[in-house]
Write a structure and sequence with these properties.
Helices cover about 85% and strands about 0% of the residues. The chain has about 250 residues and is mainly alpha-helical. Helix 1 (about 1-20) crosses helix 2 and helix 3 (about 55-105) crosses helix 4.
Length: about 250
């Protein structure tokens, strides 16, 4: 039970880090449990009294409602975190290009990150400021950059920061590496947009086929069946007696 509670606290703590929410995940989980337990108990008991459920169904209903409440809260936070990550992905190529331009103009890495923290970058602004502060505090650049995916839920951001950190640790030129990553990200995002558009078109075609093609095929098949039944009914019936007389 203790391990399960720790797992839940860790899962919610990760979501809070993605969303930039600074509250105690332990207190939040405890409050959710305090809310979910009586709600599940009352709703299950009331439903069982109305529907006359047996004991095992009451137990299953309680577990289902309890899991539904916890899962619903976690799913809501997860969707918010993913939306925040997609927002960062849209501005990431521009941010990388701006950082590279600042570095090429003669600014240090931490100063370039700080000067590139623009409000139009959304959640990425806060992360750039956090990274620059950690670099100023003495943290290595590649290690500070790898802290970004802990606060932004995005596979694209995670891969980009990993490639950037590896390039810096291997002694690569930061400005050129940032420009190359920016160009690659623009190409990848454009391909993803085209893929999403194609999938949307296919979904629309499938919907119209199911909504209009299905009833049309059913009507045609029903008409064919009626015609065949009428033809079969119009055929003369041969009885066994007539075969014997012949």
């Amino acid at each position: 039970m203790t391990n399960l509670l720790r797992t839940m606290i860790g899962a919610f703590e990760a979501q809070f880090a993605y969303l930039g929410i600074r509250i105690s995940s332990r207190k939040f989980v405890i409050n959710i449990l305090v809310f979910a337990l009586p709600l599940s108990l009352v709703s299950t008991v009331f439903t069982s009294l109305v529907l006359q459920w047996p004991y095992f169904l009451v137990l299953l209903g309680f577990v289902f409602v309890f899991a539904l409440v916890l899962g619903g809260v976690y799913l809501f936070l997860d969707l918010q975190a993913e939306g925040r990550g997609r927002q960062v992905e849209r501005f990431l190529p521009d941010a990388l290009q701006l950082i590279a331009s600042n570095i090429k103009s003669g600014l240090t890495t931490e100063r370039a990150l700080l000067m590139s923290a623009r409000p139009e970058f959304g959640p990425l602004e806060k992360e750039l400021k956090r990274v620059s502060t950690r670099i100023l505090a003495g943290m290595p650049v590649e290690k500070a950059i790898l802290e970004i995916p802990k606060h932004i839920k995005s596979t694209l951001v995670e891969r980009t920061t990993w490639l950037l950190a590896r390039g810096i640790s291997s002694g690569g030129e930061i400005a050129d590496l940032l420009l190359q990553l920016s160009r690659n990200l623009r190409t990848q995002l454009a391909l993803q947009s085209e893929a999403h558009a194609s999938i949307s078109i296919y979904l629309i075609l499938i919907f119209f086929s199911a909504a209009f093609g299905g009833p049309a095929l059913y009507a045609v098949s029903s008409f064919i069946v009626e015609v065949m039944n009428a033809q079969i009914a119009s055929q003369p019936q041969i009885s066994p007696g007539s075969l014997g007389a012949a």
